[in-house]
Write a structure and sequence with these properties.
By secondary structure, the chain is of the alpha+beta class. The chain folds into two domains: 5-161, 3-Layer(aba) Sandwich (Aminopeptidase), CATH 3.40.630.30; 165-253, Glutaredoxin (3-Layer(aba) Sandwich). It is built from seven helices and 13 strands. It has helices spanning 28-41, 93-107, 126-131, 163-167, 187-200, 213-218, 242-253, and strands at residues 5-7, 47-51, 57-63, 71-72, 76-84, 112-117, 135-139, 146-151, 160-161, 176-180, 205-209, 226-230, 233-236. The strands form three sheets. It has a seven-stranded mixed sheet. α5 links the parallel β10 (176-180) and β11 (205-209). It starts with a strand and ends with a helix.
Length: 254
């Protein structure tokens, strides 16, 4: 029987959609950045598996030493993203994709698999992973992000959130600082909206483009993929439109 899922690779990445940003809409620039990054990371063991339909159903996993998440987890696989949305919910795609990821981690001889989870946007609720045997092994000081882990070997090193991300404080930060990665196609568009709002509010914006696992573990951005700081304080990991940033900045400047 033919599988309803497919794995992207260097041959198919140019033709297949990448789920979270479909088509030629406003996120086209970020989509191309994401495609270029995926093509590079396939050689490092990254796996992007999706439903072979036009929809947002996929999982992206990568060996921890290449993960763009602030996770210290020697010989573990890291889930960058697991997303099932719209009409595809309720058909066990989440479980099927997670099962695949676990087997892929074992195939790559990893000691386990882990993921940042929580109740905020852009994350899967921790209880989903807990249902499938994952345990919470760490969390950020602000309580927003939980590190869930499934170890295959009892002697495996327990994964941790890198210390700068765990405290989520940008020491010496001034005005708006944004930590970005090429991992999410929504980033360029949301950055444009953020810059517009910051200019209207008289705030300078400093963009820090993070491109490696080492850099992400040295940064205070707790979600890794995207992190916005106002002065020294972490304010959001969510990619917003202009109204969203107006609301967030006004709240923290009040």
């Amino acid at each position: 029987m033919t599988s309803p899922y497919l794995n992207l690779d260097t041959d198919s990445i140019a033709q297949e959609h990448i789920c979270c940003a479909i088509g030629k809409g406003k996120h086209q620039k970020g989509e191309q950045i994401k495609r270029d990054w995926l093509a590079q990371e396939f050689h490092h063991g990254l796996v992007f598996r999706k439903l072979n339909e036009r929809g947002k159903v996929f999982i992206e996993i990568v060996p921890s030493e290449y993960a763009l998440k602030p996770i210290v987890a020697p010989n573990f696989m890291v889930i960058h993203c697991l997303w099932v949305s719209g009409k595809f919910k309720g058909h066990a795609h989440g479980k099927t994709l997670l099962d695949f990821a676990i087997e892929e981690a074992k195939k790559q001889n990893k000691d386990g698999i882990c993921v940042l989870a929580g109740k905020a946007n852009y994350m899967t609720d921790s209880k989903f992973y807990r249902y499938f045997g994952f345990e919470k092994v760490d969390q950020t000081d602000n309580g927003i992000f939980e590190l869930m882990s499934l170890a295959f070997d009892e002697s495996a090193t327990i994964p941790q959130i890198a210390k700068p991300a765990k405290t989520s404080v940008l020491v010496g930060g001034c005005d708006v600082t944004v930590f970005t990665t090429p991992q999410c196609p929504f980033v360029p568009t949301c950055l444009d909206d953020l810059k517009t709002v910051a200019a209207e509010m008289g705030l300078n914006v400093n963009i820090v483009n993070v491109k490696s696992h080492q850099e992400i573990c040295e940064a205070p951005s707790p979600f890794g993929t995207y992190g916005v700081f106002l002065n020294e304080k972490f304010v959001t990991h969510e990619m917003q439109n202009e109204k969203g940033y107006q609301r967030i900045f006004s709240k923290f400047l009040a």
